[in-house]
């Protein structure tokens, strides 16, 4: 089993951001290979932290960071013909400070381009579930997009839809917005590029997953631009944390299908008298084990990669 990493500490590398799951470090030029192209670089580390209801929980899921990183890398490679991504191909071991356990970071860290993030979450939905289902029940719309009457929970939409949301800080909640609000935030040209890329990648990934007996209900992407305005997909891609994957053989309209993610954790937390604010409660070992198994199954079925 992988060594668990709750928090990464890398002496000599400036910590840029510590998110719910990922720790991001600036990479000084002297740490890069001599042949690295000009530009700024980051080291992104996927830890084993787990968040639920926007709260980071005290118990990690062993190996989760490695699984997330490998799923992302698989999809970045699989979709590079559709959209450039932030990966550089620089070996993680070459940039780690001396004395750091290289094996601990080899499968959970990547060296990336430093990009200017687009300040909106890009979400594609192919099925009516989650916050989209709640919005539809209340208004008949999702992010301002009018949908037919009479749709049921988890129903497949006639066409995938793009439903952006705000990008909240750790501990805050993202909020669905309509496309016009996104245009006001980032401009029409960039908003259209992000929307088109999001739907293009979603369709490709949904078809790929369906061939493996998995339904991709929805997913969230993050994009960034370089100094020349070129658009890249960044952060994580089509992981069980950023996406809702369902086993096709357990899908049923009118229900909330089981998913390859932290649903075991959410279900357990819903049984507690907890206000969904920090600090989060401890998790029983069986919930941790079952959650880890779900992440491992998704990695195996999608990418053909097995975790010890």
UniProtKB/TrEMBL annotation:
Catalysed reactions, as listed in the record: 5-amino-1-(5-phospho-D-ribosyl)imidazole-4-carboxylate + L-aspartate + ATP = (2S)-2-[5-amino-1-(5-phospho-beta-D-ribosyl)imidazole-4-carboxamido]succinate + ADP + phosphate + 2 H(+)
By its UniProt entry, which CDD domains does this protein fall under? SAICAR_synt_Sc
Q: Which family does it belong to?
A: Belongs to the SAICAR synthetase family.
Q: Which gene encodes it?
A: purC
PANTHER family per record:
PHOSPHORIBOSYLAMINOIMIDAZOLE-SUCCINOCARBOXAMIDE SYNTHASE (PTHR43700)
- Report the pathway entry: Purine metabolism; IMP biosynthesis via de novo pathway; 5-amino-1-(5-phospho-D-ribosyl)imidazole-4-carboxamide from 5-amino-1-(5-phospho-D-ribosyl)imidazole-4-carboxylate: step 1/2
Tell me which HAMAP family the record gives.
Answer: SAICAR_synth
First-level EC class: ligase
Residues folding into a coiled coil are: none
List the top taxonomic levels of the source: Bacteria, Pseudomonadati, Pseudomonadota, Gammaproteobacteria, Lysobacterales
Q: Which UniProt keywords apply?
A: ATP-binding, Ligase, Nucleotide-binding, Purine biosynthesis
Answer whether the UniProt record assigns the keyword ATP-binding to this protein: yes
What GO annotations for molecular function exist for this entry?
ATP binding; phosphoribosylaminoimidazolesuccinocarboxamide synthase activity
The reply to whether Repeat figures as a keyword in the UniProt entry is no
Q: Which organism is it from?
A: Xanthomonas indica
Q: Which PROSITE patterns match?
A: SAICAR_SYNTHETASE_1, SAICAR_SYNTHETASE_2
Q: InterPro entries, from UniProt?
A: SAICAR_synt/ADE2_N (IPR028923), SAICAR_synth (IPR001636), SAICAR_synthetase_CS (IPR018236)
Q: Any idea of its EC number?
A: 6.3.2.6
Q: What name is this protein filed under?
A: Phosphoribosylaminoimidazole-succinocarboxamide synthase
**What GO cellular-component annotations does this UniProt entry give?**
cytoplasm
Task: Specify the SAICAR synthetase/ADE2 N-terminal domain's residue ranges.
Answer: 17-275
Q: Name one GO biological process term.
A: 'de novo' IMP biosynthetic process
